[in-house]
Amino acid sequence: MTVEHHSLERDVDLAPMTTYKVGGRARWFAEPDGLEDLRSLLEATPPEMPVFVLGRGSNVVISDSGFDGLVIRLGRGFSAIDVRPDGMIVAGAGVSLPILARTAAAAGRSGLEFYIGIPGSVGGAIRMNAGGHGSDTAAVLEWALIFDLGTREVSRRNPADLALSYRHSNLTDTDVVLQATYTTGEIDPEDAESVLREITRWRKEHQPGGTLNAGSVFKNPEHDAAGAIIDRLGLKGYRIGPVAVSDVHANWMVATKDATASDIFAFVHRIQAIVASETGIVLEPEIRFVGSFDHGDTGESPS
Ligand SMILES: Cc1cc2nc3c(=O)[nH]c(=O)nc-3n(C[C@H](O)[C@H](O)[C@H](O)COP(=O)(O)OP(=O)(O)OC[C@H]3O[C@@H](n4cnc5c(N)ncnc54)[C@H](O)[C@@H]3O)c2cc1C
To answer: Is 25 labeled as catalytic in the residue annotation?
Structure first.
């Protein structure tokens, strides 16, 4: 199958585009520069080709065999931040969350400070309803522009339309977040800066730095925390080869640079099985496995 578009590349290594730094190549890879470029890319793409939208790769594990289809990462045309006089902030879906947090703080706008420690993009944050420090994307999002890869139409959706709830949205792999508009409050930039410093300090103290990871691996079940459950089972520091439960935070599975995607997949599966057999609780992964893994599916989370 041949596909022609100015931004298309073949056999692109995806590992460096993710925080775990594992995984194989995308058969096709493109970074469209704007909506029209995205549309023309799709015109050139056979309809049957699987498409995956990659953000900053901070919540995914790409299979060692890569992705047999088209991986789209939003390019420069999706990286603008506009702080409006009415306090709304409009950000392209490719914008990095820490940059958004810093820009808002410097402009004297409050509400987005919690993004400082989340190394994802605006698009990924909406898909995952990313959150922390008592807030989440649903609490600050006014609306998002969503492009449907099937119909090629753009819709404007608010948090209720997106069904945003704890680490969940109703977006699917045929939806591309293009842009987000946030409601913010007023704050003295120096006060905002000290909130950012405090969050950063807290993260350094409570989360493992200097490791390969994708943040929390499992969603918290109702009325409990996945990390606390894993910790209670004495699994902090538990290791299989290059992957281990972090000593600092038991819901983080940290990898060394020798790890493969299969190692991480197997390890997450193993922890899930131990927790299920010891407690009856089936933890649901928050991270996404993309591509094919050992049990031969096309990439959803292990069950
Ligand atoms: C050190 C560390 C700390 C973290 N801390 C937190 C935290 O405190 N809170 C939290 O919620 N998460 C946290 N995470 C996880 C992660 O950063 C978030 O889930 C983030 O929102 C993922 O964004 P991303 O751009 O990296 O998405 P990716 O990992 O690239 O993709 C994740 C999902 O979003 C989809 N996606 C990405 N961009 C788009 C788009 N434009 N349109 C449609 N779909 C898209 C992908 O298809 C995929 O399904 C952490 C991760 C790390 C590594």
So the answer is: no
Q: What is the C-alpha to C-alpha distance for residues 230 and 245, in angstroms, rounded to an integer? A: 9
Give per-10-residue mean pLDDT for the chain (303 aa). 77 98 98 96 93 98 98 97 97 98 98 98 98 97 97 97 97 97 98 98 92 97 97 98 97 97 98 98 98 65 40
Q: How many CA atoms lie within 13 A of 277 on its CB side?
A: 5
For residue 4, what pLDDT is reported? 72
Q: Looking at residue 294, what is its pLDDT?
A: 79
Domains and CATH numbers, the chain: 9-76 (3.30.43.10), 79-204 (3.30.465.10)
Cα→Cα distances 111→105, 137, 158, 186, 267, Å: 9, 10, 17, 9, 36
Q: Whose CA is nearest to atom 3 of ligand 1?
A: 215
- pLDDT value of position 2: 58
The β-bridge partners of 288 are 60
DSSP 207: S
Give the span between the Cα atoms of 248 and 225, in whole angstroms: 15
Candidates 59, 171, 178, 204: which one to mutate for ligand 1, based on the most atoms within 8 Å of Cβ?
A: 59
Catalytic residue chosen out of the listed positions 167, 169, 246, 288: 167
> Whole-angstrom Cα distance, residue 66 to residue 29?
11
